[in-house]
Amino acid sequence: MRAAVLYEQGKPPVIERVEVADPKQGEVLVRMVASGVCHSDLHVINGHLPANLPVVMGHEGAGVVERVGPGVTSVQPGDHVVLLWRAPCNRCYFCGIGKSYLCPVAGQIRWTGCLADGTSRFSAGGRTLKHFGGVSTFSEYTVVMENAALPVRKDVPLDRVALVGCGVMTGVGAVFNTAKVEPGSRVAIWGAGGVGLNVVQACAMVSADRIIVVDILDNKLEMARQFGATHTVNARDTDPVQAVRDLTDGYGADYTFEVIGNPRTIAQAYEAARPGGTAVVVGASPVGETVSIEAASLVLQEKRLIGSLYGSTRPRVDMPRLLDLYVDGKLKLDELITRRYRLDQLNEAFAAMERGEVARSVVVYD
Ligand code: PAD
Ligand code: ZN
């Protein structure tokens, strides 16, 4: 079978033949059907985010369970599953308080690139390859922990389901779960990409009043209007902080969202939040970089700067709910998919994302 392997940061992943071993105790072999192309993979490829190398890339995927290892009870062959790049262990403190995206077992899988027993199921030419986020979705087959394969309804096409595995959950969850935006709120969103557009549509779903979207590309701002933006600002020619203030009686927005991953735009989003307002950081900035904000404003204006990981997801509650919303015509998934690619075109898909041509691309497997 074939997979996309990253050997060196700063170089494109290589699409090549890879061996995948049988699933062990508590693991599942999944035949991938679709994998979305998210900027977080590109951050790793560019060296902005770390990963243990060489690694089979991809983290936004869905497929069909092919085989299960010993002791697996929650899924069976034939199930449609969305893969979770932060899967609950269901035993730790964080899983106990409903914040499984902070689970240290999931964190260890992300940072080591190994499954829970500390080993890998992938190899190429006798060399061991790591698992990205415990899911490695840019692969015709993948082995994941049982809890990373969440069964979903079978009437939603798996390319749509794949998007829920990262971008949709992350964007919608930042609004519903992390920020809990109230109806009538005024919001501003920096970045109308595959994740940001989901922040936009979630703000529209909760009846935010004013939905201001900031990007540097007019085609992205046009997409944002289709997803519910009421106002758009091109930051190439307009100061976005001033523009947001002008649209909010001079105060700033109740909630701002940074969905790019850039300390400069994080600072802008913070500045554009009103006194008492909340700036939510979704974008993943390069590790080691710092944000500069006026310290006194935290107190004197009681402003909040908070992060949102994986849309603060409660996977078993939120992901089936998102698919129900899609089936009921309340959540846009079809409109997110601008292009479909084959696995051997993956690097073209990353280039199209870098050029800002797509809302989301999806790699589909035969
Ligand atoms: P994307 O490339 O599809 O979208 C990024 C958007 O930002 C594009 O529309 C750009 O034009 C726009 N942009 C870039 N620079 C600027 C700027 N200076 N001012 C305004 N707009 C700008 O990426 P994506 O939507 O796939 O991912 C966005 C970020 O979210 C990225 O950093 C990714 O790693 C992160 C992410 N975080 C989580 C999480 O759990 N928090 C999950 C998934 C993705
Ligand atoms: Zn992602």
Please describe what this structure looks like.
The chain is an alpha/beta fold. It folds into two domains: 2-165 and 333-364, Quinone Oxidoreductase, Chain A, domain 1 (Alpha-Beta Complex); 169-309, 3-Layer(aba) Sandwich (Rossmann fold), CATH 3.40.50.720. It has eleven helices and 19 strands. Strands 4, 6, 7, 10, 11, 18 and 19 form a seven-stranded mixed β-sheet that branches. A six-stranded mixed β-sheet has the order 2-1-5-9-8-3, covered by helices on one side. Helix 11 (346-354) links the parallel strand 18 and strand 19 (360-364). The longest helix is centred in the middle third of the chain and has 22 residues, at 158-179. The relative contact order is 0.16. The site of 5-beta-D-ribofuranosylpicolinamide adenine-dinucleotide (PAD) has 33 residues, from helix 1, helix 4 and strand 13.
Overall SS class: alpha/beta
Number of strands: 19
How helical, in percent, are the residues? 25-40%
* Poorly predicted sequence stretches spanning 5 or more consecutive residues: none
CATH topology of the largest domain: Quinone Oxidoreductase, Chain A, domain 1
* Principal-axis shape: globular
CATH architecture of the largest domain: Alpha-Beta Complex
Question: What is Rg?
Answer: 20 Å
Our count of domains comes out at: 2
Task: Tell me about the largest β-sheet.
Answer: 7 strands, mixed
Can you identify the CATH class of the largest domain? Alpha Beta
**Ligand types:** 5-beta-D-ribofuranosylpicolinamide adenine-dinucleotide, zinc ion
Mean pLDDT: 98
What is the CATH superfamily classification of the largest domain?
A: Medium-chain alcohol dehydrogenases, catalytic domain
Report, as a whole number of angstroms, the end-to-end distance: 12 Å
Run of helices and strands: EEEEHEEEHHEEEEHEHEHEHEHEHEHEHE
**Individual helix count:** 11
**% residues in beta strands:** 25-35%
